[in-house]
Amino acid sequence: MDQDISFCTTSDGVMIAYATLGEGPPLVYVTGWPGHLQLELDTEHSREFIRALSEGVRLIRYDMRGSGLSDTDVSDLTLDRFVLDLAAVIDEVGPPVNLLSLGFLAGPIAITYAAQFPERVSLLILSTAYLRGADLFDEERARALIAFIRTSGFPVDITTIEEGTEKQYRGVAQIQKESAPKEAQAQVAEAMLGADVTELAAKISMPALVIHGRQDSVIPFSQGRELASTLPNAKFVPFEGMSSAPWRYQDLIVGEIKGFLGVDVATRKTTATSDIRTVLFTDIVGHTEMMQRLGDAKGRDVLREHERITREALAEHGGDEVKTMGDGFMASFGSVTKAVECAIALQRAFAERESDEPLSVRVGINAGEPIEEDGDLFGATVILASRIAAKAEGGEILVADTVRGLCSGKGFLFADRGEFVAKGFEDPVRVYEVRWSE
Q1: Do domains 4-261 and 271-435 have the same CATH topology?
Q2: DSSP per residue, 139-198
Q3: Across-strand partners of 368?
Q4: Is residue 174's pLDDT more than 70?
Q5: Do the Cβ atoms of 116 and 35 come closer than 8 Å?
Q6: pTM above the 0.70 mark?
Q7: Which of 47, 168, 269, 388 has the maximal Cβ count within 10 Å?
Q8: In whole angstroms, what is the distance from residue 382 CA to residue 332 CA?
C-alpha cells in the first residue's frame, strides 16, 4: 500500500505535508492530534484502518502544524491556526470534498471549517466529536492533564485497554511520542479543552453523520448526542464501544462512513488462496523501552539493522514480506520447511550479531489457507500466527501443531509447550518450540 506525499503552504506561511491514497470521491481525514503520515502507515493497526478507509475513495490525510512531516518549528498552535492547515490542504486537492474528523481536536477543526466554507464541504462526518472542550474535564483536572502532557506527553490509560490490544495502544503512544514535542502536544490539548463550536455547529448546512461510542472514556457519549442534536441535518449512530479507538471497531465505523458516502466497496478483490501458506510473524521484545532508552536516532539505527537481517533471511529462504509493523514483520511462504528454516536463520543471525544493543526477537508460525486481498493476508490462519508469536519469549520460535505435523521427518527438533486458548478461538491450540541453538 503506497501513498503519495506532497506539501502545501498555509496562508500564514506554514508548510503542511499531506498524503493521498486510493481512488474515488475525495475524503479529507482530520485527526486533530499530532501525527506522522509515514509512521501511521508503518504501524499495523493504523495501517489496516487507513487501508479500509481508502477503499472506494481518494483518502487525503495530513500532518497538522507542529507535528510529523509538516513544519514543527511553529509556536502558535491554536484552533484557528489548525483550521488554516485544513484550508490549505483542501485548496490544494480542490473543493468540494467530504470531510471526516476522528477524535480530539478534529471535530472543532472540521466544524469550524464547514461552517465558514459550506460550499467547499459536501458531507461532514464526525466521530468522537464534541461542542465544548470545557465539558470534557473540570478545571482542576484539565490543568493537571496539561501539566502532565508538558512533562510526559499524552497519557495512554492502560486501565481502559482491552485484553489483546495492548500493542495497538502502545503503538499509538509511540506515534504520538515521535510525532511532536511534548510542548506541541500540550498546546493541542489546550486548544482542545478551550474549544467551543456550539454556535458554529448550529450553522452547518450540509448533511452530517455523527458516530459515537457509548463507553468512550475520552469524549463522553453525552457530548456526541448533544452535538448531533445541535447540527441541523445530522444522522446519529451510537454504538457499544469506544469511538476514540476506531481501529477496535473498524468494520462498524468504516461501514457507516462508506454507507453515508454512498461508496460501494462490495466488489473489492477478496479471494481464498488455493494452497496452504505458512505465515510467519516476528516481534522485537522490549521495542518501546529500547526506543525510550536509545532515543529516536540510535533506536532507528537498530531497527534498520533488524530490518536488514530479516529481509536478507526472507530472500534467502523464499519468503514474501507481507508487511512490516515497525518492530516486526509478517511474511508468507509456500513451503512450511522454508519458513521454519528462515526462522532458525533469523534467530541465529540475531544471536551472533555483535553490538552493544542486543536484539531479542520472538517468532510465531502457523500454516493454513488464509484470505488474500490486495497483496495482504487475512483470516484465522494469520490471526493465530500472530497470537502464537505473542506467546513466545525473546529468542524463541513457537509453531502451531499443524506446522510441526507438516515438518515431520525434516530433521527439526521440537519441544511441546502445551496448549493455550488464543483470543478469538474456541478450541485450545497446542504449540511447539523449535530448538535452533547448536
Answers
A1: no
A2: HHHHHHHHHHHHHH-S---GGGPPTT-HHHHHHHHHHHHHHS-HHHHHHHHHHHHH-B-H
A3: 277
A4: no
A5: no
A6: no
A7: 388
A8: 10
Element (H, E) at 322: strand 320-324
Pull the grid cell for residue 81: 491556526
**Integer Cα distance of 128 and 239 in angstroms:** 11
Measured in degrees and rounded to the nearest 5, phi and psi for residue 417 equal -105, 10
Domain residue ranges in the chain: 4-261, 271-435
- Say whether pLDDT at 2 is over 50: yes
Assign 19 to helix, strand or coil. strand
Cis peptide before 96 (omega within 30 of 0): yes
In this structure, are residues 282 and 362 in contact, taking their beta carbons and an 8 Å threshold? yes
CA distances from 262 to 56, 76, 86, 158 (A): 10, 38, 24, 37
- Evaluate whether 181 touches 71 at the Cβ level (below 8 Å): no
C-alpha to C-alpha distances, 123 to 91, 101, 213, 384, nearest whole angstrom: 17, 11, 21, 39
CATH number of 4-261: 3.40.50.1820
DSSP string across 402-434 = HHHHHTTTS--EEEEEEEE--TT-SS-EEEEEE
Look at residue 288 and tell me whether its pLDDT is greater than 90: no
Task: Report residue 17 as a C-alpha cell.
Answer: 505535508
CATH superfamily of the domain spanning 271-435: Nucleotide cyclase, GGDEF domain (3.30.70.1230)
**What's phi and psi for 19, nearest 5 deg?**
-125, 145
